[in-house]
TrEMBL record:
Descriptive protein name: Pyridoxamine 5'-phosphate oxidase family protein
Entries under SUPFAM superfamilies matching the protein: FMN-binding split barrel
InterPro entries for the chain: Pyridox_Oxase_FMN-dep, Pyridox_Oxase_N, Split_barrel_FMN-bd
A Pfam family per the record: PNPOx_N
Annotated Pyridoxamine 5'-phosphate oxidase N-terminal domain residues: 28-145
Amino acid sequence: MDDETLNTIYGEPVPASLVKETDHLIASYRALIEASPFFALASAGPDGLDCSPRGERGGAVTIADERTLIIPDRRGNNRIDTLRNIVADPRVALLFLIPGSGTTLRVNGRAIVTIDAELLESLALNGKMPRSAIVISIDSVYFQCARAVMRADLWNPEHHALAESLPTAGEILAEASDNELGGAAYDRQWPQRAARTLD
């Protein structure tokens, strides 16, 4: 497959799919980001690709200006795959979801990791500062139409998976580690561990 073949199969993009792309946040795009508590952050590095879920009620991202986004790196599992990738290759992509809305927002840009004390202090949550922050310079931003969310019927409670029908984190860890980690004890302790590390 090559680019010419793809163009033959798909034809020209519709004008609306091109005019919606900007190199900065217009007012509408700012409103979508401010409404989104969750996004996926994709990065690439010498060890491969990473796509990390990020979320925070009340705004998962700080909008510094029309060309700059700031993401606090809240406590997690310390794998820091995303941060390692950004240090090696600044290119990132973000996909914002808004519960109840079919519209998603995509941002492509270049990122740096910072430990600037003043910035981290401004990002404190419940008195706890993130250990670092990701500062993204926007290259392009555009909304994605609702077709994928509509096809998935993503926000319809009737189609939500029942927790009891899915493997638990403890069960997954036990299977992946040949029962060296995880199990029922892991699941019992998880709510307390999570409560201590949400900030």
